[in-house]
Specification:
CATH class of the largest domain: Mainly Beta
Shape: elongated
Radius of gyration: 19 Å
Low-confidence stretches: none
Structural class: alpha+beta
Largest sheet: 6 strands, antiparallel, barrel
Order of helices and strands: HHHHHEEEEEEEE
CATH architecture of the largest domain: Beta Barrel
CATH topology of the largest domain: Elongation Factor Tu (Ef-tu), domain 3
Length: 197
Amino acid sequence: MDVPELLEAASLLVPEEIATENDITVNDIWDYLTKDEWEVALGLLEELGDVHPLPFSFWESLATAAEQMRLEESAAWCHWRGYETRNGIIRADLTLRPGTEARRQTPISGAGVLRPMWNIGNRTATGEPALSIALLWVELTPFLEPGGRASVRLAPLDPSQWQHLQPNQVITMHEDRSVAGTAVVLEVHRPTATPSP
């Protein structure tokens, strides 16, 4: 499918009554599609996806359209949201340790590239902490500096290990044996329905 077909397919999955904070609805998106303003339509569809849970196929159509338009960050975000549709959402408030106290001296990328380990309370058979890996997406900023603080989204490589997480639980981020940051869990949402293929 080409870009307009992908965006149209995604639009058909959005309930008509859903609106963004600015009262944009899927009907407005159809206007942008008829004017070939695909990038605007893509951005508004992403916003609608934040208002109401939409199926995996919605996010995959948007990701493919973004890739065809060479919008790498939008494509990465839509793939991320597709993952969350299938596996659930984990959001946390992360504070990195300052560069004077931690190994990391450079900012981390916010776009889901870093795969740190996390102490989420699991233990090995001998009682040692069992660290679990999750990709990290920093919200509303392209980078997080050492010592910085931001809301983040986590995408566990093995979501079954993370089922016990609860809001207000404190977890720690590790890039080696030392603690690189501390996070307080803000939200945990399990998948709400069986995702479409």
